Amino acid sequence: MASLVVETMQAELGAAEPWPDNAALFQPYQVEQITFPDYAQCLSVKTFLHMCGLNFNVELRTNAEEMSPSGKVPFIRVGAFLVSELDPIVAFVNTRGFQLSGHLDEQEKSEMRAYMALVDNLLVNAELHLAWCDQQVSEEVSKPRYGCMHPWPLNRVLPFKKQREVRARLSSLGWGKKTVDEVCDDVRTCCQELSERLDKKAYFFGDKPTELDAQVFGHLFTILTTALPVRRFAEVIEEYKNLTAFCQRIDERVFKKAGHKF
């Protein structure tokens, strides 16, 4: 009960204050350090904030994970508040009066949340599986990037620790013994559902973007554009022409035309 009261007070305080000029998004170093699953999460949040028309600075930190309230990136600092991960950030931004999905009715909002859960349950886990369970990707890409900003022996110890944590999480979800083919099937299932929902529309729920659009763009665009020794996920996405066109459209409208940076 006490926690609920605190959350309610924080929400009321957040709603009473305007969006500050010094809002910041924290993430690992983008070129050298960040792994592609984390980059996908960061890009989803950046896209959401840009779609809301909110200004923020990107702050790069080697220890962004340790700084985060949840231990995950990205997180934002808005005044006295620190909020991490897409769903809590969306909820916090909503308290400030910015709601991308405000035009949806309750049934549509429920459907949107179901699709966002689908992305979390399939696409996000598939990214983690590829990054940390595929031997070639983990040894050639994920481990070197995750450890590059730390001195020896931390540059060896921390990536192995991260790999154990991710594998334990995936095992608890039934993903530990999945083959690459099985994970590709999960990616295809997710893309099929998203493709059918998008159909020929500009966005998933008509002519206006929602947080689902930001989330899907962040993950699909990252998979399509990240140079990896294994491209099977990208090849699956490329089978769905309306999804690749969707990514190109968001890239053009939200980032290139508006002059925003990834």
Can you tell me about this structure?
It is a single chain. The longest helix is centred in the middle third of the chain and has 27 residues, at 106-132. The protein has 2 domains: 2-95, Glutaredoxin, CATH 3.40.30; 106-256, Up-down Bundle (Glutathione S-transferase Yfyf (Class Pi), Chain A, domain 2), CATH 1.20.1050. The termini are far apart. With 262 residues, it is α+β, with helices and mostly antiparallel strands. The model is unreliable at 1-6 (pLDDT under 50). Helix 2 links the parallel strand 1 (24-27) and strand 2. It has a 4-stranded mixed sheet with strand order 2-1-3-4, covered by helices on one side. It has helices spanning 2-16, 36-51, 64-67, 86-95, 106-132, 135-147, 154-172, 180-198, 211-225, 232-238, 241-256, and strands spanning 24-27, 57-60, 75-78, 81-84. The protein is globular. The chain has 11 helices and 4 strands. Helices cover 61% and strands 6% of the residues. Helix 5 packs antiparallel against helix 8.
What are the SSEs and their pairings?
Elements: H1 2-16, E1 24-27, H2 36-51, E2 57-60, H3 64-67, E3 75-78, E4 81-84, H4 86-95, H5 106-132, H6 135-147, H7 154-172, H8 180-198, H9 211-225, H10 232-238, H11 241-256
Parallel strand pairs: 1-2
Antiparallel strand pairs: 1-3, 3-4
